[in-house]
Automatic annotation (TrEMBL):
PANTHER family: IRON-SULFUR ASSEMBLY PROTEIN ISCA, CHLOROPLASTIC
Core domain sequence ranges: 15-117
Family matches, as InterPro entries: ATAP (IPR016092), ATAP_core_dom (IPR000361), FeS_cluster_insertion_CS (IPR017870), HesB-like_dom_sf (IPR035903), IscA_plant_cyanobact (IPR031108)
UniProt record similarity statement: Belongs to the HesB/IscA family. Ycf83 subfamily.
PROSITE patterns: HESB
UniProt-recorded name of the protein: Iron-sulfur cluster assembly accessory protein
Amino acid sequence: MAQATPQATQPKKGILMSEAALKHVMALREKQGSDLCLRVGVRQGGCSGMSYMMDFEDPSRISEQDEVYDYDGFKVVCDRKSLLYLYGLMLDYSDALIGGGFQFTNPNASQTCGCGKSFGA
């Protein structure tokens, strides 16, 4: 009887990205500069109390206080304080004419605003 070999499991990512979001971010990065990472976080403000933030950043700015998730060589970075509110976040992208752009599906949000760019926890 053949024994099943344990499969290597990839570490879970605290910030998830759909294929469409990753493709769009990579295209935007090419316009900015090829060696940038994506920083995702939260800040106070917005319709529901906290708003999402995303921006490209030089990898040299990654600190020990950051969690880094690798997507085939592309790094997504989140500070640990923001990660308390974002762990499990799914970042998606749609090119629909109405309602298109980046969409955040956050399992930690107790409420979200109509624009989808802010939330309450």
